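Input:
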Amino acid sequence: MKIKTKPYKNGVKDFTNAVMSLPSRFTDVAKAPDVKPASPTEFNVNKIACSLHPKTQKLVIEKIEDLSEGFKCYTLKAENGKAAYFRAGQYLAFQIKAGSSFCTRAYSIASSPKDALNGIYKIAVKRVDDGFVSGFIIDNWKEGDTVVSYAPEGTFVYEPLRDAKTVIGIAGGSGITPFLSLAKAIDERTENFNLTLLYGARTVKDLAFKDELDRIAEANGNFKVVYVLSEGRQKGFEHGFIVAELIKKYAPSSGDYSIFACGPEAMYAFLGKEVEALGLRRKFVRFEMQGVSKSTPKKAGLTDETCKLTVIDRGNKCEIEARCDETVLTALEKAGIAVPVRCRSGECGFCRSKLLSGEVYIDDGTDYRRLADIQFGYIHPCCTFPKGDITIRIN
Amino acid sequence: MSKKYDVIVIGAGNGGLVAAAKCAHAGKKTLLVERHNLPGGSATSFVRGRFEFEASLHELCGIGPFTEGGRELKKIFDELGVSEKIEWTALDEAFRMITINDEKNVDYTLPTTRKAFIDRVEEYSPGSREKCEKLFDIIEEANAGLDYLGTIQNFSTDIFKKIFGTYSDFINSAGYTVNEVFDALDLPQAARDCFGGYWLYLGTPLDEESFMHYFTMFKSYIIDGPVIPKTRSHGISTAILERFEELGGEAWMNTAVKKIIVKNGIARGVELDSGEIIECDCVISNASPYNMYTKLIDSADIPKYQLKKLNSVKLAPKGFSMFLGLDKSAEELGIDNHSYFIYDTTDTARQSQLTRSRAANNMQAAVCLNRGVPGCSPEGTCILYITSLFTGDDAWNDITEENYVSAKREFADRAIANFEKATGTRIRDSIEEIEIATPVTYARYLDAPNGTIYGFENTGSYGIVQRVATDALGKKIGRLYYGGGYGTKSLGFSPSYTTGYEAAVAALKNLEKEAAKQ
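Output:
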């Protein structure tokens, strides 16, 4: 029933309009079908949300290739044929049961977004000296095995509204993988920008994916690759380390470029100062996160003494052992407690937990907590060290 | 069946948080389950680089004016012991409204408080003062009438006399649209534009929007005054959760509910995704009726009337938001205001048509947080949000996995250009961080059907008065209550909190009644 009178003209009739004019509502309800409406999952945007962000994905290891000493490439095929689409530069976090431990590790995707539409991802895993999980994967993952990952995540992506049209990429070690994905995406026209990659390694044989990178550079003028060897001299290669001068040599002389860097901690420690010398605005410098620095415990004066970690999980309490020089997450993983984790670098916030008692150390460099989380004592266990006995609520 | 609770609250959104805190405050053994790793639903924030972005809140109403001890929401927060955990900033400026594609573009900046607002409207629309005063009188009396109506237990002749006497403006306006009342007052166009500036917050054009609905919101912003929390809305969510736990409530994060268990027409518990079944005496759902009836409850247990109700309403507008961390200060960039409404035109019906597609939608609400909370981002930077609405159901139907990123970027680009055009600023060279949320994002995080951010549409036969009068009618599942944005008060921060509170009050009353029977 539509309004039949005019306001301020009709006295009592207005009351009918205001409070009693409900028959149309009753009619509408009476006329409506008594079946379930479309489930939210039937709308297009909800469907896209589900396919871009599945809770987990089962992936079958289709092929394992050696890249160099202790560095392997894994081709994974989605069990149901559908691998979540992603943005070049993003990573997959894997759930890994290693012995009694339950761990999560993030690996940048080396394949292209288009490959995902065919159900394929590639990742590369490098054995880290004191790395527990990388060694486990290299020694245990076999072709035909099924592994479980979360949906692609990560902010190490090219964003034209933010980044310069030319990106100087700086890669070291396994940090080459996101750049390989970005290069492929440029080649496949999924991304549209200029990428000049400075790829550092000790020797030529340490340059994983060299043939593929050369092929893309050959075929596509928007992608260039420069190899920088720290040992020995060879024609056609740069030598030494990736210093400010070298970056300038390959960067546009206009100074209009972004730097994207991905590599091991040692590279970041060195590169940080070199990039600073270039005087770029902060928005033009992006380092892919890579976990808590190994030097953090020492810097914070944390020793290897053990402490008690009390964990509350949906009302259930358990006590495990932790070490003051290892993160709270490491203790949880070692104890086989499944925690929702993705980046392991403090950034994504998936592992956010409540600190109920005890003292902890969080380095400023990995403290990406929200203001209210700091106020109310929440922590990101992946980059938090216990200073003594602590109690946390994880779920 | 391991544990048993008096109350289980599904979802720690605004409604669920307040409902849970209220139940725990009343001494009930309460379990709050939330499928995400943090509380809040829309009331949250996220960190990118050196910026913490608010996810949804522009300004909160129902808290001020502090001089009078605050309104409804502040009283709820006071009662529950939440208020002392949150620091608020009150805003003097209401909004700046700019049109960019009208025959004659407007640029109005409106302050809060009745007097200042009318003085400013008089500047933009000379000679309209008297009519503006009259309109404010109506707004105040209509709101008082609505409040009074809410307190009535049983109608009597005296009460009718009072409604028709003391609150005649309520009677004379509540059944009409905003434009009908403007017409009745013969309000000049410029004044209408000023009073109608907020319409984007509700998303319904003013020729359809109920006068009462719109001016309940208007009053709470202009007369009571808007506030913002210093630590984003995540600060509110975390504060309520903190208080809930202090009161003995139990909160489980990362815990999704698969099913509400109904036996003989009465809600008896929930089944978690893990398969675990938890019993309780009553369930308060912050999951929307839409999701409850399509996903969480077996068909056989749903009263047909509830499905008919659900099928008789439409989904409200769908959301788009862009979050910008800029590497220059608001002063350097020339962003002078906190809250902007940028429209093609002041003709809300035409604007509403334009917002049906990405290609024609130029409407936006932009907020520069630093103008409300100075120091909210590092020195020499500022935070800017740009939000748009999509009416109709089709604006993002062409999206695929592959074209999604470019489609959202294209719209973001357009929104940035519109902001620059309207304000005469240049922001695109200063973007240090950017995130873009679309209906797909709201579908992902809120499980919102078609990515709506406003619940059910507030038009036609389902306006605010009809909601208040008819929502409670019809056969329902026993001991199942709904508290949240898809409810009687429609969607928004303040209504969601208060609806959650009311759901808890109803649940507690029922528990008491049941206890008395035994």
